[in-house]
């Protein structure tokens, strides 16, 4: 029997094929995979706890029986926490959802599915009004969510909800219209609210054979993806290991592979020179890669030798779902040629870089915890003392929003004083991460010092990444680690430097059981941050030398 869970439609179809292939033994599950979902479980517990307090709610977190859910539905519960849904055998569906919210206007019990996810699900769009919102304490009180749209790249949860909606239809429990609820996490300490999405609203851009691209609804997307995976599972289930036809899907390296237990099965089946393996930065998506495969291009070597202009007439009509499809292909081909030549970082212009310099300069880098809280502002000051001096502003503890603002004030006060004493001061950062966080805290607190710091950023801050992006291309992108090591020949002290890794160190610095471990983690974070700002300085000096040499 083919029954697919809510994640199948949003997951790699090769995973579905492997799971239903009787000739392919299932790999052991990696316990570390569970850690990737811990943040989500904390958020989910908070949301479900709030919903359980709604009058008329039935909490089934301690019961997994279908009978208990049937009884809650029959009783007309206002909210059902962690329901168990009956299998939809005809539709090849199994699974459930985090909660069901009743259709208050229906003459008999009918429900809408709800999921809690640990990320923001809406963004600004002036004039938008398709979404609805309600507080967790009153999920039936709906208001128009003005000037906000759903973040399309979070469509995965909508496919899960569409799966639950189809199961509710099969059971006879679905509301009159296909609305579904998502409770995201604002990551600012504020109480999350419910965002209601009409699953029939067409706002997801997808490939169209006739028009290049077409806007489709979450339900349309789900029905297509689910139907394809049913076909994939059915094909896999028919395999015997003897004279089987080629699989209907082939492995392609995608983000999901990083935590997929089936990766150890898929990887040996891939060419070592496979495009999806070797071009990791700004990678082509699955449809783009499948289109190249249909044109006879599967490896880096093949793309490096290909005539892109000759490919475009057949390639572009099949990749109209992506903006800048031609530019993306040309960028991938450029990276392929660099890989074929063994070049990791290459200059693509003859014009001077023209990076502005000053008598007193600050290189700036911040560190944030996994919830987005800024706990460290690191500054490297050049031009005041004989040697560049590192100045960290840090809090190693559990920070509130007020603590975060207080730390930003401490840094900003120091920086503004330095700017007053040195009128030509320039502050360098790599990408806009620091400015975004500074602006966010200024808007949140409306503190005059932070507003002045934002104004200073507009006048004196220099985004080094913009200068690099305009003049260079990198096989592995143009992140600071890539440019500093491969261009400026800089080396970090830590063997495994990285922003995500620093978040792990911060957790140890705050919550480790023994003092020695906490102190070691704090020192490691500070050294990593200091190396980041020294790397920024190294890149600046390298760019300046390039201009001097060219002159």
Automatic annotation (TrEMBL):
InterPro entries linked to this entry: RecB_nuclease_TM0106_put (IPR019993), RNaseH-like_sf (IPR012337), YprB_RNase_H-like_dom (IPR038720)
Domain named YprB ribonuclease H-like: residues: 364-543
Pfam families from the UniProt entry: RNase_H_2
Classification via NCBIfam families: TM0106 family RecB-like putative nuclease
Name recorded for this polypeptide: RecB family nuclease, putative, TM0106 family
Organism: Tessaracoccus oleiagri
Source species taxonomy: Bacteria, Bacillati, Actinomycetota, Actinomycetes, Propionibacteriales
